């Protein structure tokens, strides 16, 4: 599949086929693509926690996701994304932020990796939904995520149960200024 086709076809899916399961091997391929994204000084601080078993997905969803995201991700595997805090965007010797973004660079790097993640998933025949509305502390406790990591998102990964159309996008001229 050509990159432009992947970009054109990727959608945020909110209905998954529970009869088709995502495998550990599929997620390893997808995460390997995510790792190829650039990161601050190549520190690669993004982390992925993959939940594949039906029992753990159900328990995680009940404890960590609001009802609408439980419904939106039903039938999919779940991947929690985090990054190591106070690392990227900080001076290695002093530990001080190098600019006003500070830990914002951790979010930035993770966002780059997550974009690779969802594009590789689509190329692999899978669909995704990135969910930012979740209970970060419940996730931390459920998955034993260390305090040194920032919980950011939960990505549903699975096979779409129905087709989804592309919502209207802005034009380049709506969002760009050339000087």
UniProtKB/TrEMBL annotation:
Residues in domain Nitroreductase? 8-159
Q: Where is the signal peptide?
A: none
Pfam family, any one:
Nitroreductase
* Protein's UniProt keywords contain Oxidoreductase: yes
Sorted UniProt keywords: Oxidoreductase
Q: Does the keyword Oxidoreductase apply?
A: yes
Family under the similarity heading: Belongs to the nitroreductase family.
Protein name from the UniProt record = Nitroreductase family protein
**What does UniProt list as this organism's lineage?**
Bacteria, Bacillati, Bacillota, Clostridia, Lachnospirales
